[in-house]
Amino acid sequence: MQTTNEKIALLRAAMKAAGANACLIPSSDPHISEYLPAHWSARRYFSGFTGSVGNLVVTETASALWVDGRYFVQAAHQLEGSEIVLQKMGVEGVPTLMEYLTDALGEGQVLAVDGMVTATSTMKELQKALAKKGASVKSVDLVEGNWPDRPAVPASEAFLLDETYAGRSAAEKLGDLRAELAKQGAGAMVVCRLDSVAWLLNLRASDLDNTPFALAYCFVTPDDAILFINTARLPAEAAEALGRQGVRVTDYDHLLGALTGYHHDQTVLVDEAGTNWAVYSALAGNPVFTLKAGEDPIQALKGVKNPVEIENLKNAHLRDGVAMVKFQMWLEEKMAAGETVTEVDVDEKLMALRSEQTLNIGVSFDTIAAYGANAAMMHYHATPAGCTTLAPKGFLLVDCGGQYLDGTTDITRTYALGELTDNERTYYTYVLKSHIDMAKLQFLNTCTGGNLDVIARAPVWAHGIDYRCGTGHGVGFVGGVHEGPHNLRITNHTVFKPGMIVTDEPGIYEEGEVGIRIENELLCCERVKNQYGQFLGFEPVTYCPIDLTPVRPELLDADEKEWLNAFHQMVREKLTPHLSAVEAAWLAEKTQPLA
Asked: Protease: present as a keyword of the record (predicted)?
């Protein structure tokens, strides 16, 4: 097996052969996805860093990896022993990716980037920045041929999500998209993002681990829609059903040729952040197309769940809550009996319990089961070779979720396994305060995710503490566990609307010591309307008790206690009909009011 440094040496040789002086290996695929099929996990392969986000740069004499705050600890561990220098994004004194490249490359030098997996916005930014130094960008694939035993392109069987779950037909959604395109002065669009294609056509598959998407594009014009997919994996009845919805089907690899050979004048909306450079270049090279930059309208459309989706996702959360109750009971029994339980055991038990639930089709992401100091790594993943055994003290953080045919779930609970320090109890209560303050918030309907993020951080900021990540993110419907355009992050400018789902997951992470996070999903709802405007609020749709054992009640105010007690009453009422007598009694004990 090659070492990381040996793999970097192969990239340098490929760079030289391509006439390049540096290369960028992003975390991306042709659809600019967050979670990648193994076939396109090149950054992971060449760097050894397994986190979901990161950018690797290799020059003739150096290499560096950029990661955000979620991965500082993990990346530092995984890069040990390699030549790659960790660049912690957002930390004072650390150069940005663009700053590093413009410093490394000079007059006449070339950066190699694979345009097939690079967003158009990124490519344009690179071109603009490097042009100032007299350097240029070359679209070339350096990965192919330098990755022995590269995994194959996925081709799982695709299927159509029934309208009893999705709520609206592909034909209706195509009408919505065309109306939005017209508002933006466009008539056509190449839908590249997998989550957008999935929502638009009610198309699902399992090409990505834990995310039920199919590798596909869709070219939409005023009177036509063409799905580009590996036709061998689309059942005939699904293709026929799409045909009845006004969708033609052709092979995945035909997209670029179809764009270059198109003969009708069209103004095409291009989502430059979600369209790869190869697709953009095919559009730009055809004179019949007038390109208009804009955001993918589907992202906003699918971000607001329809009434059928809302009813369904609540049902999915009920069954997910049942699995979580069974898990916590199992965990307590094992710990009380003094049996050996590892982080991997926790992962496997959660997966098994979810698989028992009706309509379950898997998990929504790799479970984070992190004991003690491991939880300080926000995206820690235990492996059989390197997992920790639980002990009757400290915290176990569990961040997990399920994929169901009627919804996608995401939940985090931090469990006290025994004796806690005063500091651990205090930190836990600070996080709980942050969680509650967001969940009970009432706000004007002009507020953005950036406005709301501050509310959740206030209780930890008051003690000089922060967390290097957003407070929450959107969640897809039988889709990606991370969804936009809305989220709870200081930089987010999307205005919240009724029907949006967002996670509420503040935390405290002290490297080498402790990690604490509490997460529910919230549904944005209308509240009071008066002379000041329309106010909105949140309804929790996660039905699972929050561990009260670590709470310091004196740190919660009366309103926070009232919210917590009401939440637990709701959880008890929702779940009890679906539990055995023993489970219901356990839940009643865990949801007693906090005085």
From this structure: yes
CATH code at 196? 3.40.350.10
- Of 85, 105, 139, the residue that ends a domain is 139
What's the Cα-to-Cα distance from 218 to each of 12, 37, 211, 387, rounded to whole Å? 36, 19, 19, 42
**Pairing label, strands 63-67, 55-59:** antiparallel
Give the residue numbers spanning the domain of 259.
Answer: 159-298
Longest alpha-carbon distance in the chain: 75
Beta bridge partners of 40: none
pLDDT digits (tens, 9 = 90+) for 170-225: 999 999 999 999 999 999 999 999 999 999 999 999 999 999 999 999 999 999 99
3-state secondary structure of 525: strand
Using alpha carbons only, how large is the chain's radius of gyration in Å? 25
Rounded to whole angstroms, the Cα distance separating 193 from 23 reads 24
Residue 515 placed within a domain: yes
Peptide bond into 151 cis (omega under 30): no
Whether residue 236 sits in one domain with residue 116: no
Residues 325, 259 share a domain? no
Say yes or no to pLDDT of 379 above 90: no
CB neighbour list of residue 83: distance below 8 Å, 6 or more residues apart: 4, 5, 8, 62, 63
- Interatomic CA distance for residues 391 and 338, integer angstroms: 9
Q: What percentage of the chain exceeds 70 in pLDDT?
A: 100
Are residues 376 and 434 part of one domain? yes
Tokens 């198309």 belong to: 203
Interhelix angle for 120-131 vs 97-104, to 10°?
A: 40
300 burial (CB, 10 Å; 0-12 / 13-18 / 19+) is middle
Instruction: Please state, in angstroms and rounded to a whole number, the distance separating the CA atoms of residues 457 and 202.
Output: 37
What pLDDT digit, counting tens, does each position of 46-105 carry? Answer: 999 999 899 999 999 999 999 998 899 899 999 999 999 999 999 999 999 999 999 999
CA distance 151 to 42: 10
| Measured distance CA(517)–CA(377) in Å, rounded | 11
> What is the chain's mean pLDDT, rounded?
97
Structural domain count of the chain: 3
CA angle 565, 436, 366 (to 5 degrees): 105
77 and 131 part of one domain? yes
Do residue 272 and residue 401 come from a single domain? no
Query: pLDDT tens digits for 581-593?
Result: 999 999 999 999 9
Q: Mark whether 404 and 525 lie in a shared domain.
A: yes
Say which residue the tokens 């790799």 belong to. Answer: 366
Q: Collapsing DSSP states into helix, strand and coil, what is residue 86?
A: strand
Length of the chain: 595
Interval 102-121 mean pLDDT = 98
Q: How many CB atoms are closer than 10 A to CB 585?
A: 12
